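stage 2 :: seqdesign
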């Protein structure tokens, strides 16, 4: 133990590098090698016609976002575990959907996006919506932060004494029904907020009068607290996988949301790993199925047998590396730190050409759909995509692919560890037929992470599938469920009636 203390600074440097290993580290290396070429190309592009640019690197029709600016003098009131904030905006259902449509040459700098420097609560406030911050303690002591956009009742007294009322939620489509949105791996509640408000699922639901709750899994920047463990000092804090999140975090959040809202059922919508965590929760706590009005699985995660992302190429390495790192005093990986942000701003956000290159690296991971991504959004995506998780969470992705078969199983501790934990040499397999809540699954044909074949397998295993749909765009990828330009027409307009 003394050895680690004497080399703590060196180990932290090694851990920082390892946190970029795989997708992030590969991304940065590509950008560093291409930086000079991008600068030269960017200069040349200013003298050439935009019509001559390649489809992947420029000449796109970009759109600007319009953000409301919050009053910086606004005061907030706080409870013991709930922060309530309300801003005197005219929060109208008639949101202005007009956007500037401008052709940019590749050497034009990206406009500054203030929300790239904001937290999720700050983004919600910046858009002019009310906010509550809640804290939930899990059965094993993790303190999770939930972000809520509450419904507002016409004529009800405001928390801060302001007079403006917007609509009576009891007369809206949502009628205040609670909705729980769960992000994917190494992400946070911000993933639901980055798109312009009129094509963000969280804000569209709020506009319709739903009680919108957004979860943050243990270990990300908002849920990095514990009743006993210090995430900076205690390695035990980071010894969790999908299994613990599904067994502890999701049930704790569901129970809390229902208790606060007063409803007996909620609608759960998950993206990517947020769907797999739901399946685990329902399997391990069968009584929870009766508390789910409907579940919407966007890019569902269970089996990874048919993974097409380049992540599959490093899966064997990641699985072995996880065994080593699991014995070290590890911290968060895929975490947003100042070093990564500096690299992103220098190599990705200086002009539209560099931004298009970085976007294409993201596409290598999850599928390419360049005409459906607004490059103005890239700074916010860069700032909020990597929010931290544990080694085991990433390793469990690799383990599922490395099995070479269609399976949804618990974390693999090796034969000895499995025997101690599960009583068998192999990890226990989840029986997905125990998920009896009504489930609707949506997949994208160009999603390299949640593929059609794996989604079809999940649909065949679940106990109560009410719908299985392919998004009507052959290029729809893993990120498009959250940030695409035409996500309303392709997805949200179809799923919103299911929240009712």
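stage 2 :: out
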């Amino acid at each position: 133990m003394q050895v680690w203390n004497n080399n703590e600074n060196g180990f932290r440097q090694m851990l920082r590098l390892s946190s970029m290993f795989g997708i992030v580290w590969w991304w940065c290396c590509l950008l560093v090698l291409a930086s000079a070429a991008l600068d030269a190309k960017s200069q040349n592009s200013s003298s050439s016609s935009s019509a001559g640019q390649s489809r992947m690197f420029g000449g796109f029709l970009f759109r600007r976002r319009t953000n409301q600016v919050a009053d910086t003098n606004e005061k907030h009131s706080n409870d013991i575990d709930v922060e309530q904030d309300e801003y005197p905006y005219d929060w109208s259902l008639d949101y202005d959907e007009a956007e500037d449509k401008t052709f940019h040459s590749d050497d034009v700098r990206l406009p500054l996006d203030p929300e790239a420097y904001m937290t999720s609560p700050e983004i919600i406030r910046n858009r002019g919506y009310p906010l509550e911050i809640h804290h939930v303690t899990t059965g094993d002591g993790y303190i999770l932060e939930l972000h809520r956009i509450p419904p507002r009742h016409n004529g009800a007294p405001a928390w801060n004494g302001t007079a403006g009322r917007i609509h009576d939620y009891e007369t809206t489509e949502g009628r205040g029904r609670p909705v729980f949105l769960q992000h994917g791996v190494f992400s946070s509640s911000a993933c639901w907020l980055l798109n312009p408000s009129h094509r963000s699922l969280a804000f569209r639901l709020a506009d319709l009068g739903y009680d919108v709750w957004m979860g943050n899994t243990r270990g990300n920047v908002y849920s990095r607290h514990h009743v006993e463990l210090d995430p900076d000092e205690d390695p035990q804090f980071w010894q969790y996988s999908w299994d613990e999140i599904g067994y502890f975090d999701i049930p704790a959040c569901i129970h809390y949301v229902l208790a606060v809202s007063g409803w007996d059922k909620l609608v759960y919508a998950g993206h990517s790993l947020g769907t797999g965590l739901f399946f685990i929760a329902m399997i391990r706590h069968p009584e929870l199925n009766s508390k789910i009005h409907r579940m919407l699985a966007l890019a569902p995660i269970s089996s990874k047998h048919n993974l097409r992302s380049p992540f599959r190429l490093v899966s064997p390495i990641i699985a072995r590396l996880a065994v080593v790192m699991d014995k070290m005093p590890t911290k968060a990986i895929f975490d947003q730190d100042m070093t990564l942000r500096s690299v992103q701003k220098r190599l990705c956000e200086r002009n539209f050409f560099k931004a298009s290159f970085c976007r294409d690296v993201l596409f290598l991971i999850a599928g390419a759909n360049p005409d459906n991504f607004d490059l103005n959004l890239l700074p916010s995506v860069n700032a909020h995509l990597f929010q931290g998780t544990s080694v085991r969470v990433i390793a469990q992705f690799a383990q599922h692919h490395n099995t070479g078969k269609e399976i949804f199983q618990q974390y693999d501790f090796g034969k000895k560890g499995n025997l101690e934990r599960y009583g068998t040499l192999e990890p226990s397999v989840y029986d997905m037929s125990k998920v009896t809540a009504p489930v609707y699954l949506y997949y994208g044909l160009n999603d390299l992470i949640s593929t059609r074949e794996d989604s079809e397998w999940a649909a065949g295993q679940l106990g109560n599938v009410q719908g299985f749909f392919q998004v009507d765009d052959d290029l729809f990828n893993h990120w498009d469920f959250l940030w695409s330009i035409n996500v309303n027409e392709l997805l949200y307009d179809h799923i919103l009636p299911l929240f009712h």
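stage 3 :: structure notes
- Residues 1-82, 84-103, 154-166 have pLDDT under 50 and may be disordered.
- The radius of gyration is 22 Å.
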